[in-house]
Design goal:
three-stranded antiparallel beta sheet, 15 helices, nine-stranded mixed beta sheet, binds iron/sulfur cluster, TIM Barrel, single chain, alpha/beta, 14 strands, 2 domains, binds S-adenosylmethionine
Length: 374
């Protein structure tokens, strides 16, 4: 299996919590330059690895993320897809996803995206509560988000929607929002517990006391309530932050968790190809300068040592509902019965699988595994 990730770094404005590689300062000229550079980056990588064109690994999944891919004008999205996806051999059942922000998803844009081959859309809803959207610094109001959900569900084969568990949440309205999304046709939900990143507006507001986040116990209880609620709708938890109807799971994300090869293009994109992992320059200006000088735009990354690789090979599958076979665990040192008693994991059919509580405490699970690996 092979995946392709394309990073579009442009946003309409910067949300209060976001630390991704993105910029709100752009115009048509910069957007075109970045698209051309991503196409050129693929050519540079082809020269490094001719197998890319040979078709020995047809593309199974494509994911256009960001930033905000729906900030690209239709002709630039067409050029990006034609110059990258269009030049690579693809499997007949290619999964092709793009992320959209609700305020930029129109029926016209959806038609252009479908014609370009995009059949799955991931919509960054985050909340349908106007106060929460304001705290998150979103450009979108609930009515616009609802309209975008309807356009997405009417236009694409599969629709995923993102929610953030962060400031200002009220349990009853959050659960009602998830009900509403499912009723409108959403088959996949990504539910992220807010991470506070230094340098963001939200981190500053918390540091100065202008904003208080809910206590961890409250967020955790909300998360567990959402897990149950989504399960009752038929959307099972299949990864720490992901829920889907059977068959609607994201195949692209699965590649990350199973260690399958994928190619990343664009600022900050990372990849795992030819047994090598890499990460591109995050700053758009540096990325452009490197590609336009004919260089592969990778930044420095620390290669994982043997024990870090071993830990990763266990913790990544443990992030998923499939878990890991018991015979892959370090013998003797991990107290399996204790974790099972504490409700962090279940032991059955020769496998260790995390419970919803274990997914919530994935950091604790990782610490225990690291200690067991020595
Ligand atoms: C790559 S981001 C951007 C997607 C798109 N631009 C948007 O805003 O919807 C994908 C998702 O990551 C989640 N996310 C971003 N920053 C986060 C943070 N600090 N903590 C938790 N989740 C976050 C949001 O739910 C977001 O929809
Ligand atoms: S959350 Fe999405 S729209 Fe907001 S700044 Fe980050 S990438 Fe841009």
């Amino acid at each position: 299996m092979a995946g392709l990730y394309l990073h579009v770094p442009f946003c309409g404005s910067i949300c209060s919590y976001c630390h991704f590689a993105r910029t709100a300062r752009h115009d048509g000229g910069l957007r075109r330059r970045v698209v051309e550079a991503m196409v050129a980056e693929l050519d540079l990588r082809r020269r490094q690895c001719p197998a890319l064109t040979a078709g020995s690994r047809p593309l199974e999944t494509v994911y256009i993320g960001g930033g905000t891919p729906s900030q690209l004008e239709p002709e630039l999205m067409e050029a990006l897809v034609a110059g990258t996806v269009g030049t690579l051999p693809a499997a007949a059942d290619l999964e092709f996803t793009a992320e959209a922000n609700p305020e930029t998803l129109t029926a016209d844009l959806a038609r252009v995206w479908r014609a370009a081959g995009i059949a799955r859309v991931s919509l960054g809803v985050q909340s349908l509560d106007p106060d929460v959207l304001t705290l998150l610094g979103r450009q979108c109001d609930p009515a616009t988000a609802r309209k975008a959900l309807d356009i997405a569900c009417a236009s694409f084969d599969r629709v995923s929607a993102d929610w953030i568990l962060g400031p200002g949440l009220r349990r009853a309205s959050l659960l009602a929002e998830l009900d509403e999304a499912v009723d409108r046709g959403v088959e996949h939900v990504s539910l992220y517990i807010l991470e506070l990143h230094e340098g963001t507006e939200l981190a500053r507001a918390v540091a100065t006391g202008a904003l208080t986040l809910p206590p961890d116990a409250e967020t955790e209880s909300l998360y567990l309530a959402c897990v149950e609620h989504l399960a009752a709708h038929g959307l099972a938890q299949y990864e720490v932050s992901n829920f889907a109807r059977p068959g609607a799971e994201s195949r692209h994300n699965r590649a990350y968790w199973t260690g399958a090869p994928f190619l990343g293009l664009g600022p900050s994109a990372s990849g795992f190809w030819g047994r090598r992992r890499y990460s591109n320059e995050p700053a758009t200006s540096r990325y452009l300068a490197r590609v336009e000088a004919g260089e592969i735009p990778e930044g420095l990354i620390d290669p994982l040592d043997r024990s870090a690789r071993r830990l990763e090979s266990l913790i990544l599958p443990l992030r998923t509902a499939a878990g890991v076979p018991l015979d892959r665990l370090p013998p003797g040192t991990l107290d399996l019965d204790r974790g099972a008693r504490e409700g962090l994991w279940r032991l059955a059919d020769g496998r260790m699988r995390l419970t919803a509580r274990g997914f919530l405490r994935i950091d604790t699970v990782e610490e225990r595994l690291a200690a067991a690996l020595g």
